[in-house]
Amino acid sequence: MRPSPRSLIRILVPVKRCVDYAVKIRVNAQQTGIDTNVKHSMNPFDEIAVEEAVRLRQKFTSKIEQVTAISIGTAKSQETLRTALAMGADTALHVEVPESGSETLEPLSVAKVLRAVVAKKGPFDLVILGKQAIDDDYGQTGQMLAGLLGWGQATYASGVELDLDKGWADVTREVDEGSELVRVRLPAVITTDLRLNQPRYASLPNIMKAKKKPLEKLTPQDLGVDITPQLEILKVEEPKKRVGGQKVKDVDELVEKLKEAGVLPGV
Description:
Layout: E1 9-14, E2 17-19, E3 40-42, H1 44-59, E4 64-73, H2 77-87, E5 91-96, H3 99-102, H4 107-121, E6 126-130, H5 141-149, E7 152-163, E8 168-175, E9 178-185, E10 188-192, H6 204-210, E11 215-218, H7 251-260
Parallel strand pairs: 1-4, 1-6, 4-5, 5-11, 6-10, 7-10
Antiparallel strand pairs: 2-3, 7-8, 8-9
Helix pairs in contact: 2-6, 4-5
């Protein structure tokens, strides 16, 4: 049974620590994954989610009680949570996993942890998260979470309008043909797209204030969730380097070149 929206709304915002978007990705020497000894930052889509939650909190000051940021990862994920707190989140939850297991976290495991947090630390009325993480690009966590919770979902949001008196959200979604407007009843899960907003920079005073905001630590075991991966990565390789192209004078020459390259076998 879906819980009905309460008079005071609480928002949960999952954030992930990723390799910074400006870093050139390289495969590690063991070919088991990418080199992670580089600069990290908050997943850009999650930054948008934090910004949207904070804007809603500022817009509905008398109706939105709290914005809670949550991150599932190693101890270094606390840096990401402090960034979310400096952007305006009220509290933070850190579900700590060991260094050896952080790189194998799968969307279903993350969704199960988030469902457990909603059950144990809730009630929450809205979960806002990025549509995907830029490291693994699965783009599945929000949808899986909504399914596990039995909540409505509005994905790839480029616009969010809340009507808290009626208990719903009107969400403009990015789709192949352009955009569409959907209405979802609270509680709900919303995933954010790039056009939703422009995240703010955390000011120095807010960074200092963030150090004093509450940050609670948990483990998957505390929540009764098994995060053992179901997939095994056998090998990671860099894509082949692209070579320069060449111009052809007509279709016949193009076909001959494709035959020589083995692209058109048997033709």
